[in-house]
Design goal:
Distance between the termini: 25 Å
Structural class: mainly alpha
Order of helices and strands: HHHHH
Oligomer: single chain
Length: about 140
């Protein structure tokens, strides 16, 4: 690529936002995989127990459990940065509540079934991962 240059010691420099982009893409793909897995489990269990509720603990673990591993691996790879974790959690909470409010406003019939908070959480996980990676990347540059 044109933006990757050999710095003389054999390492290739990457753009600062490449780490953020890679983490977000991996998080979204793992979320989609979790949703697919949840769909298969729901279809297999449907004849026996009925359709699962969207706000159950199993839903959250199946969908979001694998999606947080890229951020966990990034946290383990470098020195701990508490500020990056705090910023990521604040972004996660803020985006979850904003998207949930928008979803409940747009779909008032589904507001009581907590679908809005689930949609907000699905959208917020990649945002939280991006904020986390951006803060770690910025701290490593400085």
């Amino acid at each position: 690529m044109a933006d990757e240059k050999d710095s003389g010691n054999g390492s290739i420099r990457r753009r600062p936002w490449d780490l953020v982009w890679d983490l977000v893409v991996e998080t979204v793909l793992l979320e989609l995989g979790g949703l697919a897995l949840f769909g298969v489990v729901a279809l297999l269990a449907w004849p026996f127990v009925g359709l699962p509720d969207s706000a159950t603990l199993a839903t959250g673990m199946l969908v979001t459990g694998p999606a947080v591993w890229p951020a966990v691996e990034l946290y383990r790879a470098g020195p701990p940065r508490r500020l990056a974790v705090v910023a990521a959690v604040l972004a996660l909470v803020t985006v979850t509540l904003l998207v949930a409010a928008a979803a409940n406003w747009a779909l008032p019939a589904l507001a009581d079934s907590e679908v809005g908070i689930f949609i907000g959480y699905l959208v917020a996980i990649p945002v939280g991962a991006a904020v986390f990676a951006w803060c770690l990347n910025r701290a490593n540059v400085a």
